[in-house]
Amino acid sequence: MITTWKVIRYLGAPVLLLVPALWAVGPPADTGPASELSRIRTLAEQGSIRDEIVLAGDYFTGSGVERDPKMAAYWYEKAAGLGSPEAQNQIGYFYQAGIGVTRDSKRAFHWYQLASSAGLPRAKVNLAIAYLRGSGVQKNDDMAVRLLTQAFQQGNGTAATYLGLLYFFGIAVNEDKVAAEKWFESGLKLHDPLAGFNLGSLYSVYADHPHDLPKAAELLRVATDAGYVPAMHSLGLLLINHPEVKQTPGQALNLIETAANAGSWKSSVVLGILARDGRGVPVDKEAAYRHFRIAVLQGRKDAELMIKRDLEVLEGTISPERCQAANSAANEWFEHHSIALAYVYKDGATKRDFPPAALAIAPDGSSAGQLLPLSSSL
After folding, report:
1. 206-261 pLDDT, tens per residue?
2. What is the secondary structure of 90-154 as a DSSP string?
3. Own/partner pairs for 56-59, CB < 8 Å, 24+ apart?
4. E-assigned strands of the chain?
């Protein structure tokens, strides 16, 4: 059985990713009276690009209508066909991830290219990732770096962060950790949450970088405040493992719960550990088992390999009836939380505060547009 310390330490390892320069969504926001939705639909059917995009977002998030990815894709593609760079970028992602349409990397590249040609910085970042991966187009590292540089020069902080990742791992450029950190700092100045997350990770867990936990917490809070789910997980772990770091009562647990609700299987594992061992919560073996079962549903093989022994031990201490009840509860919970999100709404925000919505993790569990694997040995 994995010990608490070992699991929490492993789960705290950061994962530096190249994911699409798109926003994911959390719980659907209120859209107002039904008459407003009817008005939007009417205008969309009359060819209003703005309302086509709004209606697509409503279908994607289930805001005022039943959630329907196919209808979301339909309206995004319609707006894209009418020349909206934002919709072109969005439907490109849908084709890349296979959301509401059949996955088609060449079609995704086509839409990214159109949006990029129109000057949309986010599309340039997505196009760069396509060139880096050779997704839908022949691999071209030089073009990828050029596009990221252009997007950064247009003020896109995510592009700066991705350039930092390239230098950090020596992808398409010579490895240079110092240059990487400078790019992360540039991304942070441009308010990119990924930059705050990466810098926070450097200051908290990377062996070859000076550690400063209060500074790491501050950086991770920047990313957390922007709704970035991996940062919530990392900050929650940091606060759990280091109660001396300034925090409000219950903050660490709330962060881990929020990340778990957004689809983070590692956060669900942590919740299981806390309930199993009574760390910050009462000892509850059945709750621990339920959290572990949720983690397996979320993380599949990766999670199952990590906590298989823990599940077996708990099954030996809980009656078959209680195990069955916990399994049923986990399955029911997962039905309503089956989509893994990279970003979630902040309280009080509406989806119109964000660019057109998109997932950072595809429905099959892969991270579309991702350059590096989800799991990390660091």
Report:
1. 999 999 999 999 999 999 998 889 999 999 999 999 999 999 999 999 999 999 99
2. HHHHHHHHTSSS---HHHHHHHHHHHHHTT-HHHHHHHHHHHHHTSSS---HHHHHHHHHHHHHT
3. 56/87, 56/90, 56/356, 57/351, 57/356, 57/357, 58/31
4. none
Domains of the chain (ranges plus CATH)? 4-263+339-353 (1.25.40.10)
Question: Which structure tokens are listed for 187?
Answer: 């991304």
Strand partners, 228: 343
CA pseudo-torsion sign 38, 40, 45, 46: positive
Structure token pair of residue 98: 């296979």
Residue type, 335: E
Given CA atoms 264, 265, 270, 274 in this order, what sign does their dihedral have?
Answer: positive
What's the pTM value of the predicted model, to 2 decimals? 0.81
Q: How far apart are CA 7 and CA 39, in angstroms?
A: 51
Higher-scoring residue by pLDDT: 220, 7: 220
The helix (run of H) or strand (run of E) holding residue 242 is: none
pLDDT of residue 181: 97
What is each CA distance from 231 to 45, 237, 255, 259, 359, in whole angstroms? 40, 10, 9, 9, 16
pLDDT in tens, 108-148: 999 999 999 999 999 999 999 999 989 999 999 999 999 99
